Amino acid sequence: MADRARVECWLTDMDGVLVHENTPLPGAPELIRQWTERGTPYLVLTNNSIFTPRDLAARLRASGLPVPEDRIWTSALATADFCASQMPGGSAFVIGEAGMTTALHEAGFVMTETDPDYVVVGETRNYSFEAITKAIRLINRGARFIATNPDATGPSADGVLPATGAISALITKATGKEPYVVGKPNPMMFRSAMNKIGAHSEVTGMIGDRMDTDVVAGIEAGLHTVLVLTGISDEREIERYPFRPSEVIDGVHELVDAGD
Predict the structure, then answer these.
(1) I need a surface site. Which of 62, 222, 226, 256 has the fewest CB within 10 A?
(2) Between the CA of residue 186 and those of 198, 221, 240, what are the distances in Å?
(3) Cα–Cα distance measured from residue 119 to residue 105, given in angstroms and rounded to the nearest whole number
(4) 1 pLDDT higher than 50
(5) What's the rounded mean pLDDT across residues 16-44?
(6) How does strand 153-154 pair with strand 161-162?
(7) How high is the pLDDT of residue 260?
(8) What is the pLDDT confidence band of residue 245, given thresholds at 50, 70 and 90?
């Protein structure tokens, strides 16, 4: 779909699109206000599984973006949604933070270290050798291996940090088992987000700043894709890939007052 005028619902990435280090990017507050006033269904997406939607809503509100928690969709929520669809009322051993454990609890899962149905690896700043060892042993005994996202590193003020993909790789090396990754670039995260707001792919747009996650997953999900240049991508980055977004814009300010 190449015509933005047909878009009735929006999915948007958060960091690099709406905010940068807790500072709203140009046009972001106005775009959220426009969607709210027009009753446009939308969700703010993030591959970060550390925080709950309530945590993220508070962070965005402090940055000047009034996004309600029910308008936020994380890789933790998508992972919990997937696990519950596959094994309702199941059990899991989790390497992760409150965002992941809360999502699984609310999906009806039990957290356990004894013969869980799933080992779920999410983002955390407190990776433990003991927990990783336990995960390896549980997977070797038959637990299904799930990861919230494939990102190998994450940013910090002091430089990169090992992220979910790096810890998953360690577990894969020790077990010979690859995880099923639910978050971007798996288009399943977009499909579960669209299910939440009752959207159809033919009239849904995705705004992101990464070709290798946002755009490729949006294309595979059949969405109108908009790449913004306020994050990590530039024109040179776009040329590296065999696919292209529906649109490339300088920032979300270009979407304000675009169509009715």
Answers:
(1) 62
(2) 19, 9, 20
(3) 14
(4) no
(5) 94
(6) antiparallel
(7) 44
(8) very high
Average pLDDT of the chain, as a whole number:
93
Cα separation, 26 vs 213, in Å, equals 23
Cβ-contact 218, 207 below 8 angstroms: no
Indicate the pLDDT class of residue 5, thresholds 50, 70 and 90.
confident
Domain ranges of the chain: 76-181
CA distance 239 to 48: 27
CA atoms of 29 and 26, how far apart (whole Å)? 8
Per-residue HEC secondary structure of the chain comes to: CCCHHHCCEEEEECECCCEECCEECCCHHHHHHHHHHHCCCEEEEECCCCCCHHHHHHHHHHCCCCCCHHHEEEHHHHHHHHHHHHCCCCEEEEECCHHHHHHHHHCCCEECCCCCCEEEECCCCCCCHHHHHHHHHHHHCCCEEEECCCCCEECCCCCCEECHHHHHHHHHHHHCCCCEECCCCCCHHHHHHHHHHCCCHHHEEEEECCHHHHHHHHHHCCCEEEEECCCCCCHHHHCCCCCCCCEEECCHHHHCCCCC
CATH architecture of 76-181: 3-Layer(aba) Sandwich (3.40)
Q: What is the pLDDT of residues 139-168, one digit of tens each?
A: 999 999 999 999 898 777 678 888 999 999
Phi, psi of 186 (to 5 degrees): -70, 120
- The torsion defined by the Cα of 220, 226, 231 and 234, in degrees rounded to 10, comes to 90
Gap between the Cα atoms of 74 and 193, Å rounded: 9
The whole-number pLDDT of residue 235 equals 81
Which residues are catalytically annotated?
13, 15
Say how far apart CA 101 and CA 147 lie, in whole Å: 13
